[in-house]
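Regression check, G3I case 358:
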Amino acid sequence: MSLRAAVVTTVFIAACAAALPAVAADTLRALAQSASLRIGTAVNVDALNTDAAYARLLAREFDLVTPENAMKFSVVQPERGRFDFAQADALVAFAEAHGMQVNGHVLVWHQQLPDWLTQGQFSRDELKAILREHIRTLVTRYRGRVASWDVAAEAVAEDGHARETFWSRGIGPDYLVLAFQWAHEADPQAHLRYNDYGGEGDGAKSDGIYDLVAGLRRKGAPIHGVGLQMHASLKDAPRARDVRINMKRLAALGLQTHISEMDVMLPLPASRADLRAQAALYRDMLQACLAVLQCRSFSVWGASDRYSWIPEFFPGQGDALLFDADGRTKPAYESVRRILRALASSKRTGKTVKGQRH
Ligand code: G3I
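Current build output:
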C-alpha cells in the first residue's frame, strides 16, 4: 500500500483561503518533496524579469518550471538559423538558482511556428533537416540542465485520429519517431514526453493518445512519459476515476505520467461557490495523480491569475489558478496544500492510514 495514495482518501477539504503566508516547510514544494512528487508551473518569462513578487512566489512554491512560451519555435528561431535564447536562458538560470527542475516545452507543435517556416517552400528532406537542427540545437544547449522535454504536443485530433499538421503534411507520419530520436541523441539522459489536452480521462481522444504512444514505443522511439494537460472548466472536466485508470494503462506501457498544464477556468467574476468547486477539482486531480506510482509531477499552467492565458483566449472566463492576481492563495491552493500536508505528515510519522494504492 502506498502512503501517498492512502492518505489522500482520508483528507477532508475545508476550502477556505489562507490569511497567512506559508512558512518554508509548509509550501507546496516542500510538502510535495516528501511525497516524491514534483510540483510545477508554467512560467511567463517577461513577468519573471519584471515582477519581483511573482518571481518570489514561483521560487517559494514550485520545484518544476515549464516555459509557457519561451522555448517555442517562433521565439527560439524567429529567423531561419538565427536562434534567440535570451528568454530560455533566463528561465533556466532562474530555475538553477532556486533548485527547480526545468521541463522544456515544446519541440514539435503545430502552433507558434514562425512565418519563415510556415510560408516557406520546403521539400520533405529540407523540413526534416530544419526540424532536426532545431531540436539538436535546443536540446544540446541545455543538456544536463533541462531534465525533461515535451518533445511533441497535440498531435492527436479530437476524434482520436492523427492530427494533420504542418509537420505531418511536410514530413509524413514518421515525424514523431524522428523527433524523439533526435531529442534523445542530443541528450540521452533527458526524460522525453508526449503532451496533449482533452485526453486525460476516457473517450476517443484518450484512446487515440494511448494508441499513439503505444505505437511510438513499439517503433522503438525513446519516449518516457505522457503529459496530460488538464485544461478544465467546472462544466468540462474528466472524472478523477477515469484519469486514474488512464494513467494506469499508460504506466503499463512503461511510461511515466504527469499532470502537465492544469487550470480550471471560471466565469468572471468568480463566485465563492465556484472557487470552492474549483478547489475540489484540483484536489480530485491531485489525488488521481498521487494514486498512481508512475505519476511523477503535477503542474499548473501559470502560478498567478495575473498571467494566465485564459482571459485572452476565453473572454469572460478566468481565475483559473492557485493564486489570485495579487499572489494571494485561493481555496484551490489550500486544497492542494492540505493533501500534500497530510501526506507529508503521515510519511514523517510513518502512521498507517486506510486506503489502497490503485
Ligand atoms: O510574443 C508576442 C508579442 O510579441 C505580441 O506583441 C503579442 C500580440 O498579441 O503576442 C505575443 O505572443 C503571444 C504569446 O502567447 C506570448 O504572450 C501570442 O499572441 C499568443 O497566442 C500566445 O499564447 C500562448 C498559446 O499557448 C499559443 O497557442 C499562451 O500564452 C500559452 O499559455 C499557450 O500555452 C499552450 C501550451 O503551449 C500547449 N498546451 C495548451 C496551452 C494553452 O493553449
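Comparison notes: Residues 272-290 form the longest helix (19 residues). Residues 3-349 form a domain with the TIM Barrel fold (CATH 3.20.20.80). No diff flagged against the previous build.
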